[in-house]
Structures are given as C-alpha cells and as structure tokens.
Amino acid sequence: xxxxxxxxxxxxxxxxxxxxxxxxxxxxxxxxxxxxGYNAYxxxxxxxxxxxxxxxxxxxxxGEFKLPVYIYSTIPFIYxxxxxxxxxRLPSVFYSLFSLIIIYxxxxxxxxxxxxxxxSCFLFVALPWNFIFSRTGYEASAGLFFFLVFISVWxxxxxxVLDKNRKFKSLFWWLLFLFSFVLSFYSYNSFRFxxxxxxxxxxxxxxxxxxxxxxxNLPLIILxxxxxxxxxxxxxxxxxxxxGFSRYEAVGLTGSFFEKTSTFFKNYFSHFSFDFLFAKGxxxxxxxxxxxxxxxIVSFPFLIIGLWRLLKNKNFNLWFLLFLFLISPIPxxxxxxxxxxxxxxxxxxxxxxxxxxxxxxxxxxxGRLKKWVLGLVLISYFSFFVLYFLKFVNNYNYxxxxxxxxxxxxxxxxxxxxxxxxxxxxVSESLAQPYIFALFYNKFDPLEFRKSVLYxxxxxxxxxxxxxxxxxxxxxxxxxxxxxxxxxxxxxxxxELNIYLFDKIEISDKSSVFWVYSR
Length: 519
Fold this sequence. Notes:
Elements: H1 2-19, H2 31-46, H3 68-81, H4 85-111, H5 114-126, H6 140-157, H7 167-185, H8 191-209, H9 211-216, H10 218-241, H11 246-251, H12 257-270, H13 274-279, H14 300-312, H15 316-327, H16 330-333, H17 347-364, H18 370-400, H19 406-412, H20 416-421, E1 425-427, H21 434-442, H22 446-452, E2 454-455, E3 466-469, E4 472-474, E5 487-490, E6 501-506, E7 513-518
Parallel strand pairs: 1-4, 1-5
Antiparallel strand pairs: 2-3, 3-4, 5-7, 6-7
Helix pairs in contact: 1-4, 1-5, 2-3, 2-4, 2-21, 3-4, 4-5, 4-6, 5-17, 6-7, 6-8, 7-8, 14-17, 15-17, 17-18
C-alpha cells in the first residue's frame, strides 16, 4: 500500500507540473510542433499529409521527413480538443507519464532495490533533462517510451525464449518486444542507433552466457532478425532513393576522417562536462532554462558514487545500465550541435537511475542517521525542483518566446481578423517556415491548401519552403510589395511605407519586432 501511495504521489506531481499552463507555456508552438499538428490534422480530415501522401510512413514536412509515431499519436487529441497547442503537447505528457510508470518496474527488476526504483521515478520527474521535453510536442518522448517497453519486456520475459507450455503468452511478449523495438526507431532518430545496438548487445549476452538456450531458440531469434530487417526497409529506401539522408547532411559532422573522429570524441566527452551537466545545461533555450544544468548541482557526488557502484558490481543488469550510460551521448556526438540534450535523451532515463544508486549507497554510509540523511537529500532535490518550476512558470515565456517563434502566433492568431478582411498578405520568412503557422493557427482546409500551394525549389539539403498559398505570400518583404499586397508583416522597417504603418508586434523580451503595413 505504501508503495502504491508513493507512486501515486509521483504521478500527481508529474501531471501537475506538466499540465500546468501547457497550452500557453511555451507561448507558441515551435515550427516542428506546428508541422506535427497540421499533418495530423490533415490525416484526420483527408487521410493524407500536407503533401497529399496517403497515410505516409515518413512525413516529408519541410523536406526532413518526420517520423510517424508522434504524428499519428496526435490525431485522437486533435479529434477531441481541436488543432491547438494542447493537442500537440498532450501525447508527450502521456508518453512520459507511462515512461515514469515503466521506470519503476524496470529499475526494480534491474537493481532489485525498491528505494532505487522510487528515487529513479522521482528524479525522472524532478530533474531538468526531461522537463521541457515532457510537456511540449517532442517526438523523443514517444521514442523513449517504446524503448523502455522494449527493454522491460526483455528483462521480465526474455521474449526470444519460447515457452512450449505457454505458446500464446510467449507469442504475445515476443510481438510486444518487436513492435516496441520498431516503434522506438520510428519515433525519434536517435533511437535508430540506440535500439539496434541494445538489441544486439542483449542477444550477444544471451549467446555468451546462455548458449544452449540461445541455440535451442535459434529459429525464433532468426525470425526476429528478419522481422527487424524488413521493418528497416522503408528507412533504407528513404535514405537511398529520396532526400532522407539530407537531414544528416545538414546536421552531421564535416571534414576529413581525422577531423570527424576528433570532433566526435570532443562532442562525446562534452556531455560529461561540469558546465553541461551541472552549471549551464543545453544552450538551446527550447531545451533548457538558462542558469540550470541538465541535472541539479546537488547531484555531483551522487553521480560519482553511482558510477563507482556500477563499475564495482559484476551483476549483468547493472553493467547493462553502465552500457546505456556510455552509449547515450553517441547520436548527439555525430552531429554539429553538441552537447545536445534532446539527441541524448536516453540520459533522461539513465541518469536518474545512476544518481539513485549513488544516493542509496551514500545514505547507507550513515547507519542510524540514514533516514535523516535521505530526508535531507530529498528536500534538497525537491527545493531545486520547486525553484526550477517557478522560474519556468514565471520567466520562461519572457526568456524564450522568440525562440518558440511567438511572432508568427501573434501574426496568424492575434491578427486573424485583420488578415481575414485583407486581400493579398505578405509575411516575412525570416524566422523560417511561416506557412506552417498560417495553416496551424487558421486550421486551414488541407484540400484547399494542396490546391493553391506553390513551392520554392528544394535547397541542396532537400529542404523545401512554401512560397505561397491562398492569399498568403512568404518572402522577405520589400517596399514594392505594397503594389499588390493589402497587408505586409515585415521583420525590418520599410521607411518608404511608413505612411501605411498600421501596427508593431513586439515580443515580450523585445528581441524582435514585426512591422505591420496595411494599405
């Protein structure tokens, strides 16, 4: 009963802090959220994405080919709540909530320690790493959930071992294992590395330590490999015959082999730097609040103790956690932006477990005082979390509004009545992909969009931009545009049009201004 009450408290704490003002903090959808939402809306209304593809497995979107799981997961929420910020973000909340529950059972299985399980769940809720990701429309939350299901089924049921007396039950766990594996790498790109590597690691461990069992179930293992290879074929086809590789070309490492190798190791170890973990965190403000590390500073000694605990132990389950810890930075390390909290989101699961092991080990040193010491540790973490949450609620929109492209929300939602009365409308494309915000905030009919859309040619990376649809034109505005446009939204002042100056749109931190000219 006590365990259930603690878990219930953690669930309530999670939901309270993730659902609080979820539709207005951050103050706008980011372009990826808008794209996810509108493509889900288009599928709901027409069965096709914005490009007219029927139930696609990869969504072309801006030309970077978004993965399908999160987009399809958003459809029921749009059906119930309409196309808005809440509908796009709720799937992330629920995926992370289910991840929280799985973490309790998985960590208990791996460590055999109930205290470590509860502490891992608490830190999953409280640490900054996953906070913003778990209340905004990030695909990584779905990837992490299915990855946790995949490894949980392995450690609880060993799905590659056929129980001849319970064939139906064995088949169920085998299918759940494989489908969760596949859904993880169709959720977020980093899991296209982590999931296969972990699968091979687990199968190799089974071959080394349980060879007779491995050989006895070889047909099922071969069938599993075949299933996975077939599931990977659409990914191979995308990268081989379409612009799928363009995403990595745009963000991946460049230079000679030596330069790439050198940069990779530099990027890899940057994820363990004091600045990234404890002081400054990810410098991308969409991933982290300025002034906080990815974990709270109080975690420093517990991280050292937790890693020492993993290294000194010869239990395979704990070595598996160490393996996850070591591979967590790799997807981020092969890209230009590093350290990168989102691309190394596996840390959001692994670090709480390592820290929890360290806390339990540390508390155990204190003998009769261990309950008091544990209480002080929990109060410290909870105090940091309250401070973090209050800063997020009170300051995040002021600090980050422009980073979430609030300007386009202020144009397409706040000025919707003005736009509706106007003829041709020119909108600056300086903040990237304004068309998707026009579609999202106006809930524009997907069929009408596909009839009227005109595209700019794809760039060398395969990324495409919309030039116009319906009454909208997306370009850098010029004074001459007033000859055919009734309304212009420009990020730079157009002095010759000051007689037509109608309004100014300012972001809360005054980092940008949009000038509104109306004829």
